[in-house]
Automatic annotation (TrEMBL), chain A:
<dbReference type="Pfam" id="PF03626">
    <property type="entry name" value="COX4_pro"/>
</dbReference>
<feature type="transmembrane region" description="Helical">
    <location>
        <begin position="78"/>
        <end position="102"/>
    </location>
</feature>
<dbReference type="GO" id="GO:0005886">
    <property type="term" value="C:plasma membrane"/>
</dbReference>
<dbReference type="InterPro" id="IPR011743">
    <property type="entry name" value="Caa3_sub_IV"/>
</dbReference>
<feature type="transmembrane region" description="Helical">
    <location>
        <begin position="20"/>
        <end position="44"/>
    </location>
</feature>
<keyword id="KW-1133">Transmembrane helix</keyword>
<protein>
    <recommendedName>
        <fullName>Oxidase</fullName>
    </recommendedName>
</protein>
<keyword id="KW-1003">Cell membrane</keyword>
<keyword id="KW-0812">Transmembrane</keyword>
From TrEMBL, chain B:
<dbReference type="InterPro" id="IPR000298">
    <property type="entry name" value="Cyt_c_oxidase-like_su3"/>
</dbReference>
<keyword id="KW-1133">Transmembrane helix</keyword>
<feature type="transmembrane region" description="Helical">
    <location>
        <begin position="208"/>
        <end position="227"/>
    </location>
</feature>
<feature type="transmembrane region" description="Helical">
    <location>
        <begin position="41"/>
        <end position="60"/>
    </location>
</feature>
<feature type="transmembrane region" description="Helical">
    <location>
        <begin position="72"/>
        <end position="91"/>
    </location>
</feature>
<keyword id="KW-0560">Oxidoreductase</keyword>
<dbReference type="InterPro" id="IPR013833">
    <property type="entry name" value="Cyt_c_oxidase_su3_a-hlx"/>
</dbReference>
<comment type="similarity">
    <text>Belongs to the cytochrome c oxidase subunit 3 family.</text>
</comment>
<feature type="domain" description="Heme-copper oxidase subunit III family profile">
    <location>
        <begin position="1"/>
        <end position="229"/>
    </location>
</feature>
Length: 109, 237
């Protein structure tokens, strides 16, 4: 009977070192700056454009957070596929639901 | 964890989708509801959550380098920031409760005028009366929003508050779970579970969840709190 070779626990391995302190600080400062911008927009009367500008800032914040803090930039193809799939399914969710509601001939009340 | 986060994205996506449909239908009501909220606490909470995302990345680095004291320090810092967020949130809910901004079926009679300008007594919801009072106290544009609204429109602001409580409530629930996971990691760190360059991935994977909670808040902040009209003069706790 051959010697039993214990397999390494793959989950516990990650060959990529985590982000540097400088890199994390820079990411945090960018996110804080964007949060200041979002707050400033919130206190400004931009009319109907306000929601679009606020959401644009939130999207940029989301991308910075996902790519750098959540380390998606070092993610493998499967991780990227998973992230893109989440966005795609959410897009479909919004597309079909909102299209249905906005093309109805009556309002709820 | 990424697969789990996909289910979470769709979970919050469904609520946000419903929010979008109702906001398109009732833009005036959503603007009034958002104006009645407390933007100061929400802004402080935004920075608290962003800071906690920063401290957890420092915790990962400390775990990787085998700096046990640093790891415990950054985990505790993240827990403290998350807990302070929840305390502010509780203060905000209490403020909303005190102002009577809670959807309910309670009715009351108010003096108003009919279409011909004749004074009448009208039965309206207590929520609508409380909302009018809150917006009038904020003066300026907030009062102007309230003045332009009918009693029926003020009652419909309850839809906005239904979304406000359910979305922030779900977020709070996720934060409590996240804090539980952080405490668990702190116990593991205390027991010396993490060794240099090994096992730090446990914290890294858990941090994905914590960052996701932050990500949700990044979208809740403009959609709920910044959809209205706010002025710096009327900021308060």
């Amino acid at each position: 009977m051959s010697d039993h070779v214990q397999k390494p626990i793959i989950f516990e391995e990650d060959h990529l070192p985590p982000a540097t302190i400088g890199g994390s600080t820079l990411t945090f400062l960018i996110l804080a700056g964007l949060a200041c911008m979002a707050t400033l927009i919130g206190f400004t009367d931009l009319g109907p454009a306000k929601v679009w500008v606020s959401l644009a800032v939130a999207c940029v914040q989301g991308i910075v957070l996902t790519v750098f803090f959540m380390d998606l930039r070092h993610g493998d193809k499967l991780t990227w596929l998973t992230a893109v799939a989440a966005l795609f399914w959410t897009f479909l969710l919004f597309l079909f639901t909102i299209t249905d509601y906005l093309t109805r001939q009556f309002f709820a009340f | 964890m990424w697969l789990f986060l996909v289910t979470e994205v769709l979970f919050f996506g469904g609520v946000l989708c419903a929010y979008t449909a109702y906001r398109i239908w009732y833009p005036k009501e959503f603007e009034a509801g958002s104006t009645a909220l407390n933007p100061l606490i929400a802004t402080i909470n935004t920075f608290l959550l962003l800071s906690s995302s920063f401290t957890i990345t420092l915790a990962i680095r400390s775990a990787y380098k085998g700096e046990h004291a640093g790891l415990r320090l950054w985990l505790v810092a993240t827990i403290v920031l998350g807990t302070v967020f929840l305390c502010f949130k509780a203060r905000e809910y209490y403020g909303d409760y005190e102002e009577g901004l809670v959807p309910s079926q309670q009715k009351t009679l108010v003096d108003t005028v009919d279409e011909s300008g004749k004074p009448i007594l009208k039965e309206v919801s207590v929520f609508a009366v409380n909302l009018k009072h809150v917006l009038e106290e904020k003066e300026g544009k907030a009062k102007a929003i309230s003045d332009k609204m009918t009693w029926n429109e003020r009652e419909r602001v309850q839809i906005f508050f239904m979304f406000y409580y359910s979305m922030t409530g779900l977020h709070v629930l996720h934060m409590i779970v996240g804090l539980g996971l952080l405490v668990w990691q702190l116990i593991l760190a205390q027991m010396g579970f993490f060794r240099p360059t090994e096992r730090y991935i446990y914290i890294e994977v858990m941090s994905l969840y914590w960052h996701f909670v932050d990500l949700v808040w990044i979208f809740l902040f403009p959609l709920l709190y910044m959809a209205g009209i706010h002025s710096v003069e009327h900021l308060h706790f």
